[in-house]
Amino acid sequence: MPPGIVSIFSRHCARPDQHAQRFVAGFFSLVPPPRILLIDNDAGVVEAMSCLLEDCGMVVFTASDGALGVAVAMRERPDSVLVDLQMPGLDAIEVAHSLAWLRQAQGARLVLLTARDRFGAAGAMSTGLFDACLLKPFSAAQLFASLAPPAEARDDQLAG
Question: Does the reported pTM lie above 0.85?
Answer without folding.
Answer: no
